[in-house]
Amino acid sequence: MRRRKTGRLPPIPQGTDVLPRLPRKLRKLVFRNYGQRDRFRCYDRLGLRLLLNYANYVDRQLIIHEPYEAAQLDHLLHAADSQPFDLFIDAGANLGLYALLMARSGRFVDILAFEPDPRNYRQLVTNIALNGLAADILLFACGLSDRDGTANFLQAHMRSTGMSRLGATAPADTRREQYTDIRVPVIRFDGHFSGTGRRVMIKIDVEGHETEVIAGMQHLLEDNDCLIQLEVFDTGIKKVDATLADLGYRNYRSFGHDRLYRRA
Q1: How far is CA 93 from CA 25, 116, 264, in A?
Q2: pLDDT per residue over 141-161, tens digit each?
């Protein structure tokens, strides 16, 4: 795949009409779809055509023009604009927002997206097709872990599919009645992909399975210059920091629960 040449990227837009200036409650009323809240519709958001469902949290933020991880996306896109990254890995791609924006930027030779939740994966496939980016994003209907096989997966109920997670690393206080147990495939990244001397950007959002994902891509992290954005909650920060420090990476910036790492 050849790198597409583009000009300098503008900041992520957060809406182009009067609606973003209205109070949040009023925006929610405008887009609620009374009687049909749990329904997919197409919307133009952030310069993309997206299939979204108001009943789902992440989708709803985009539908009502509420900024969703705008600072994180701006930071990564600025890094991609100013440095020669060539591979983007999206672990926990959800509806595909990160992978789609990186593909649209034209800054990457290869983009790999991994999503184990079948519902999210179907939405991801559709969003890629809607934006004509099927040739730019390589999709995998599986999760990343420290081994190959299948794993118990807690599929969150529809109000927030982004909370779905692998059962083995779910917090002890997880309310199992809010999830459905299914089996999903998982793979160890290093067992299927290899390369050295590449500039790699990695976004990891795997709801508590971070250290397993890192262990599964240890060779990638050792053999390449990587920038990592990783969502981790307070109870897991020390373990993640220590794991990445052993591989030569340090935290240099944070946006809420998202921490960014580069080589020390």
Answers
A1: 28, 9, 27
A2: 999 999 999 999 999 886 788
